[in-house]
Amino acid sequence: METIIRQIKEIDSDLNNVICRAEECRKDAERGINFNHTCEGDMSWTKQDKINSLFEYLEDAKNDIDRLKDDVKVIRDYLTNLLDDVEYESIRRKAIGES
């Protein structure tokens, strides 16, 4: 049971890390939007420059989301394995008559 509690705490920590990273990714995307808005008055920026800049931020955001998705899948796999362990332990206890 101690092992299961430790694993749950580790998963909780992993989830908190992913949430923090997601918030940082959101801030990066907002920075990209705000940066392009501040360039509105700058005549040295052409419309194409602004579009290129926005697409760079969009590509970065897409890559961040892909990494977050991969990390969430790993956490889901940890949870699946933990559930399998708990179910196995429950069946094992029933088979030997423990409660």
Describe how the helices and strands are arranged.
Elements: H1 2-38, H2 47-96
Please provide a written account of the structure:
The chain is mainly α. The chain has one domain (2-96). The protein contains 2 helices and no strands. It has helices spanning 2-38, 47-96. The longest helix is centred in the last third of the chain and has 50 residues, at 47-96.
Short description:
The chain has 99 residues and is mostly helical.
Count of extended strands = 0
Secondary-structure element string = HH
Q: Which secondary-structure class do the elements indicate? A: mainly alpha
Mean pLDDT: 89
Report strand %.
under 5%
How many discrete structural domains? 1
The biggest beta sheet is recorded as: none
Helix content: over 70%
Overall spatial form: rod-shaped
How much is the radius of gyration in Å?
23 Å
Task: Give the quaternary arrangement of the chains.
Answer: single chain
**How many DSSP helices?**
2
> pLDDT under 50 segments (min length 5)?
none
- Span of the ends, CA to CA: 13 Å
Question: What labels would you give this structure?
Answer:
single chain, 99 residues, mainly alpha, 2 helices, rod-shaped
